[in-house]
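RECORD TYPE: inverse folding
INPUT: structure tokens
STRUCTURE:
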């Protein structure tokens, strides 16, 4: 199971995310930071959790098709 709890881990998996999901997460995080938020805010962790769910679902689908 993939776990993401920091930016470096997110970046390590970024190339495995569908482009639209990656763009969405990047935009959300950029908007958050531009509005005065920080990387330590729970909102950023929510974005990491979203990426985890997508990646784990993709991984699960690949296993079931093997």
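DESIGNED SEQUENCE:
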């Amino acid at each position: 199971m993939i776990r993401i709890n920091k930016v470096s881990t997110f970046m390590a998996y970024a190339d495995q995310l569908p482009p639209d999901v990656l763009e969405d997460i990047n935009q959300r995080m950029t908007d958050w930071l531009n509005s005065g938020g920080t990387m330590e805010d729970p909102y950023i962790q929510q974005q990491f959790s979203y990426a985890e769910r997508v990646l784990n679902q993709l991984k699960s689908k690949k296993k079931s098709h093997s």
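NOTES: The radius of gyration is 13 Å.
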